[in-house]
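hey
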């Protein structure tokens, strides 16, 4: 079931991309016949790529309009649409040079007639219980994800997110939906609270509390506390702490990490990171460490991004009485963002 969904989604995306590209080529050809100016090949190619991206982004917005009109009236002016489709291709190279590749797809359709309170979200199931202040002490590919179950299947989930309250310092929202986990469908409900604090000496703190329930995973709880320190216009220092509990296993998982973000230019940045993860079984012990550097660059016009994590060094163990095993790897990632 799940492989079929993955193949189907990729097929739809590739077909949309090819159709729009063909449409752009036809427009470019007709324009060249009527235009006596000899534009350069690079400029033509750039315009073709921009037109393709614009048309795909417009299709994302149109999808949001369709869903909005189904639940309410047509949009009455105003650019409230922040809907996005994100597609990424990730390749991981191990010490022996072997590679594994994955494809990720996430969709967020914000319904403007609900005053940006109701969003339709389709994403990887692993991200369903995570938030930017909890399990991830940075990018998902380079972390030990201490506050989530390491055995979570890489499947899709779909749900409706509703913002109960949203201000500068408080956010309260819910999400209900279904996780498509072969061979079962796992409906879930989630409640999240977030509170921001502005501290002295340019420190900012965010506390997040999350509760989640589903028939297969039962009750889950997760808490996160983040501290941000702006050093200057180019440097940001971040400390992340997370702890989660699962009723099904009765275990607590913990995470703690540091990141230093270095903005090299408007289109490129570095992240230096280090993290530690642990578990309570029956007493707290460390399950893993990681250390690495990530380089991320905007390749083209704020919608194509390239990222490489090298080196990425991980020390991990499954049981307390085991020795840590070191693994070295390199991760290469290409992101495409449509809409927004």
């Amino acid at each position: 079931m799940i492989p079929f969904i993955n193949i189907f989604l990729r097929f739809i995306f590739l077909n949309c991309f090819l159709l729009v590209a063909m449409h752009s080529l036809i427009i470019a050809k007709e324009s060249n016949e009527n235009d006596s100016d000899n534009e350069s090949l690079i400029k033509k190619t750039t315009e073709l790529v921009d037109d393709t991206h614009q048309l795909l982004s417009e299709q994302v917005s149109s999808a949001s309009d369709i869903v909005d009109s189904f639940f309410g009236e047509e949009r009455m002016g105003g650019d409230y649409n922040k809907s996005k489709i994100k597609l990424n291709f990730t390749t991981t190279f191990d010490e022996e040079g072997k590679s594994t590749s994955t494809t990720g797809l996430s969709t967020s359709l914000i319904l403007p007639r609900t005053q940006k309170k109701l969003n339709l979200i389709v994403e990887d199931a692993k991200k369903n219980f995570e938030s930017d202040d909890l399990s991830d002490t940075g990018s998902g590919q380079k972390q030990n994800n201490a506050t989530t179950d390491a055995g979570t299947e890489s499947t899709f989930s779909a749900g409706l997110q509703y913002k109960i309250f949203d201000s500068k310092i408080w956010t309260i929202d819910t999400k209900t939906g279904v996780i498509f986990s072969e061979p079962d469908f796992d409906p879930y409900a989630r409640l999240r609270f977030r509170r921001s604090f502005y501290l002295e000496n340019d420190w900012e703190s965010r506390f997040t509390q999350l509760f989640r329930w589903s028939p297969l995973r039962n009750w889950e709880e997760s808490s996160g506390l983040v501290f941000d320190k702006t050093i200057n216009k180019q440097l940001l220092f971040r400390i992340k702490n997370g702890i989660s509990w699962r009723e099904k296993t009765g275990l607590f998982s913990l995470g703690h990490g540091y990141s230093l973000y270095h903005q090299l230019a408007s289109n490129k940045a570095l992240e230096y990171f280090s993290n530690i993860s642990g578990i309570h079984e029956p007493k707290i012990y460390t399950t893993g460490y990681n250390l690495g550097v990530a380089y991320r660059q905007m390749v083209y016009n704020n919608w194509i991004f390239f990222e490489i994590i090298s080196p990425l060094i991980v020390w991990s163990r499954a049981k307390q009485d085991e020795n840590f095993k070191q693994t070295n790897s390199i991760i290469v990632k290409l992101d495409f963002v449509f809409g927004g």
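The chain is about 20% helix and 50% strand. The chain has a mean pLDDT of 75.
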